[in-house]
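# step 3/5: fold
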Amino acid sequence: MNVIERIQEGVVEAVKALYDADITPDQITINNTRKEFEGDYTVVVFPFTRAARKKPEQIGEEMGNFLLEEVDELVGFNVIKGFLNLVVSDAYWRRFLLETATGDTFGQSAPKAEKVMVEFSSPNTNKPLHLGHIRNILLGWSTAQILEAAGYEVVKVQIVNDRGIAICKSMLAWEKFGEGETPKSSGIKSDHFVGKYYVLFEQKFQEEYKSWQASPAGLAAYTDKAEESQDELAFFKAFKNTYFNEYSALGQEAKAMLLKWEEGDTETVNLWKKMNQWVYDGFADTYENLGVSFDKLYYESDTYLLGKDIIVKGLEDGIFYRKEDQSVWIDLEDAKLDHKLVLRSDGTSVYMTQDIGTAQLRYDDYGVDRMVYVVADEQDYHFKVLFEIMKRLGAPYADKMFHLSYGMVDLPSGKMKSREGTVVDADDLMAEVIAEAKAMAEERGNLAELSEEERQAINRQIGLAALKFFIIKVQPRKRMTFDPKESVDMQGQTGPYVQNAYVRIRSVLRKAGAADTSRAADYNTLETAEKDLIAQLFAFPAIIEEAAEQLDPSAIANYCFDLAKAYHRFYHDYSILRADTSEAIAFRIQLSTAIAQVLKKGMELLGIEMPEQM
């Protein structure tokens, strides 16, 4: 039982003994004591005034004296209004550091007998992964790692969106304009190669559309709408989708290609397989460079027909209803949603149908207790509807479906647009931050004695830490701007700053060599800064549990930054290997060792490697 649990137990006993009232530990609020007051933990006593019928200050004094007698780990207290500040003994902190914090399994929770599926990435196969995907991937990966550390069994999956009109646009552009070019012949990474043709389709389509606007047909269309809009530019912008579906030659060809694919036309399917494989190969390289992997890949081409049988059964059970045109809908107005289409009038699926079927397929595959979908906030409404439908269908996991919604990522230059080719590809972004790390290292000159291969490895670790940390440190719901130069700042709230604390400790430990640390147990009087560091270490398991419960990796990132910042300050203010006594040296070596271990574990949860030098 740790000290917080002992305090909770003691407060329960105190309320019973002093005021003859029964409370439970979850009714007790315990916070870290504010820096301006003496103490380690603060109990809020206001909730006990009704039972005690006394002023908060008096309750604090009575409870403080009771806890001091009953809880061995406490050595003092003070009361500030309705707040009881408790002082934990140096002996407890020393024992915790030497017996628990330096252990290999510190931070890892016991198994929880609950299986969680995390879906993330889930890209389209008409373009390479880009900056927006990176935020998705990093949130998904780190969430999965944190859940595992918190004791859950985790299954990592994605659904690859490998069919549809967008895919056909890339295929058609390559077929019409590619002249047999391949990734190998062009020297372009294979997913980038396919993305090039997606952009080319848009360019050709825009040329066609612009020409049509000036044609008699285009002028006639505008004239027909003249009463509704006097803004020609606004009209043609709004009309573009209609033009694609009804007038465009390229649009008709792309739609015809999609129909051929759905009919199983051999030539079309073979082209689809070839171009998709190019993309899969490119994705695999990007995932490997990011250090992520999946337990299973689902493909939309395999799942897009799923869910229809479930809809039919739900129709029989009265969960859905059919309109006169034979389309099938569900009325969700009582859940403050709307009427949602689940099958078209011709019996074909929509995305919601597919998601219903895929959720059931995954449950059949893995028997998961929870499903977490990492998807941008543009899809908030879609997932509210999906989860409500699954509840009405009686899915056993329906109450534990969660949308980890995140805000978009911008660059200092603004938004990105895939069709216009203005996105920042994931591979290019990784190369940029690694180049920034290299430039920083060359300026510092600390790696000059290493081989080129060693320098490259360290620059890669620093660059990817900069990218990952900068994105993960932001609470997922918030929209953010990623600045490559700012991300590698050694003095900012960055991955390299945290890495530098670890490197600093590793340097201290190398200098210490095989120093005798057995005297650490005899170090009796701790400095305030030492106690503060140990208290931060103590919080690590709770931070992991909180991050797992909230599905918020930013809690781990900010914890690692705060711990690194505190150690940098301690290193500056106190001597470690030249401390006044051998006991102090031994203790500070052990303290530094524990901090290095926690920093490494914490950053590993974010997918970040720690270098030995930088």
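# step 4/5: annotate
The chain has 24 helices and 14 strands.
# step 5/5: archive (pending)
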